[in-house]
Amino acid sequence: MPQPDLVIRNGKIADGTGAPLFEGDVAITGGRIAGIGRIDAAGREEIDATGKLVTPGFVDIHTHYDGQAVWDDRLAPSSVHGVTTAVMGNCGVGFAPVRPTDHLKLIELMEGVEDIPGAALHEGLDFRWESFDDYLGVLERRPRDIDLCAQLPHGPLRVYVMGERAVRREEATADDVAAMRVLTAEAISAGALGFTTTRSLNHRTATGDYTPTLRAAAEELKGIALGLKDANAGVLQVISDFDTPSLEVEFAMLRELVEISGRPLSISVAQRHTQPGHWREIMALVDQAVDDGLPMRAQVAPRPIGVLLGLQSSRNPFSFTPAYAEIQDLPLAERVARMREPAFRARLLDEIEAPQRGYKKRVTEWPLIFPFGDPPDYSPPAEMRISAIAEREGRAPGAVALDLMLQNEGRGFIYAPFANYADHNLDVCREMLTRPNTLPGLSDGGAHVRLISDGSFPTYMLSHWGRDRTTGRLDIPWLIKRQTADTAAAVSLNDRGRLAPGLKADVNVIDMDRLALHAPLMASDLPAGGSRLLQGADGYVATICSGQVIYREGQATGALPGKLVRGPQV
């Protein structure tokens, strides 16, 4: 073997196939894996991985870096959690194609659906593109830490073709559908990895309107699916509530998209607390479709899906009170001081007792809200509910929540899981992860930046399910396979996700004994001074993209080998 650029020595190798761990070396040359096993040749650079886990880089198939990728070289938080390939453009929102008259519409759509500050998007996006291919060209010209894949979102596509009629959610005409089919085929041929849409009532624009795609007719979606068939490539990704007009009708329509196009389709699945068994009904239909030979999968999460409420977050339990409205624009330190004043505190606690509806109710539903803590606790026991603490201490729940948020000079968070936690344990998450037709996803990296910090899913999946779980622990090689080879194959990225000669040299070296999540911190590093949650981790000895070390012990090295990936890879 010629001298390798990099040799990782004496690691415990999880090669991404699910095979048992084995000890060995990994040699890398020219951004590709040159050999695995015993490597006698000395590398120009070497990493001692004795006692460490060596894995492929993680492939996250559900992120929202559509804006951040335009202005930022680093796709944090995902890249600090071992992700070396991020797939964005999910949930039907994004920024291409777009006409010059529609920039605001797409910003309001992204701000509302994915909670990315509109001011940051206005300042960070220069819209040097119109077509999807133009957008890819802009992305391609910026170096970054990890690889990035883009999908064609339904919202921009519909607005591009239909204009204001799309915003009013009018039904597409036959000519509209034909135009969308052509544009879809063009985007897939240009390098879009797939097409995505949302059909959820939970998704709204920044102005409170439903998304343009909410009730798109089956004929419109079939036309778009045929655009993927025309291009002979691409995946479909759908968000749906699966209850309008009925689960069976909605799923039958999605099945038909796969049947007529031959393209793989994934849906997002989580446990609703109001209907804790509904997800199993959805999965039964997915399983039947797979048994019938259709390439359908469900994306699931490795822990509860929840929001972090606090004085730095975009919402907290007092956000909807008149008293808090008086101080909400003050700097954090001044808000903290006011909220500690006895008279003002009494006003807050009195006003929060008023009847709540909609989202207001969600952020004051004390039996479903918990302290978060440091280190963060994503599976708090039932006795740690705010309501339970208040009962034990003889205090109002609002007072308990307020004191928790005032900790650390107003930087404390409380945790409100709204899915996957109906029984106050993670058993349902384990069941989802281990079903044969699911994929780990839904991290939403780059989105919900002031409420959610789930870009850390890969770290949690490995540390909790592979090490910390006292019962029902999962096999580490299997966990690695799930978020490397399985996710890569699901979106036709067949040049990565495994450690094998000739494949792309995306690698993590992980100290499993030290692998741990930090508590999320709010940073003000978005354009226009916008804030976002960032969450670090210990235990990542090195993260390598295309053969270059991009992070050492969680710190960026300055290397930016990441590329835009255009289309399927073989």
Quick structural summary:
The protein is α/β, with parallel strands linked by helices. Helix content is 33%, strand content 20%.
Structure notes:
By secondary structure, the chain is α/β, with parallel strands linked by helices. The chain has 2 domains: 59-304 and 422-490, TIM Barrel (Alpha-Beta Barrel); 307-419, no CATH class. It is built from 20 helices and 26 strands. Strands 1, 2, 3, 4, 5, 18, 23, 24 and 25 form a 9-stranded mixed β-sheet that branches. Strands 9-10-11-12-13-17 form a 6-stranded parallel β-sheet. α9 links the parallel β11 and β12. α7 (174-190) packs parallel to α8 (218-231) and α8 packs parallel to α9 (247-261). The radius of gyration is 23 Å and the shape is globular.
The figure for the number of domains is 2
CATH class division of the largest domain: Alpha Beta
Structural class by SSE content: alpha/beta
Low-confidence stretches: none
Give the total of beta strands: 26
Distance between the termini: 24 Å
Radius of gyration, rounded? 23 Å
The number of helices is: 20
Can you give keywords for this protein?
single chain, 570 residues, alpha/beta, TIM Barrel, nine-stranded mixed beta sheet, six-stranded parallel beta sheet, 20 helices, globular
Summarize the SSE layout with pairings.
Elements: E1 6-13, E2 22-29, E3 32-37, E4 45-48, E5 53-56, E6 58-60, H1 68-71, E7 83-88, H2 103-114, H3 118-124, H4 132-140, E8 147-150, E9 152-153, H5 154-162, H6 164-167, H7 174-190, E10 194-199, H8 218-231, E11 235-240, H9 247-261, E12 265-268, H10 278-291, E13 296-300, E14 305-310, H11 322-327, H12 332-340, H13 342-351, H14 358-362, E15 370-371, H15 386-393, H16 397-410, E16 413-419, H17 427-434, E17 438-440, H18 457-468, H19 476-482, H20 485-490, E18 507-510, E19 516-517, E20 521-523, E21 532-534, E22 537-538, E23 540-545, E24 548-552, E25 555-556, E26 564-565
Parallel strand pairs: 1-4, 1-5, 6-7, 7-8, 8-26, 9-10, 10-11, 11-12, 12-13, 13-17
Antiparallel strand pairs: 1-2, 2-3, 5-18, 14-16, 15-16, 18-23, 19-22, 20-21, 23-24, 24-25
Helix pairs in contact: 5-7, 7-8, 8-9, 9-10, 15-16
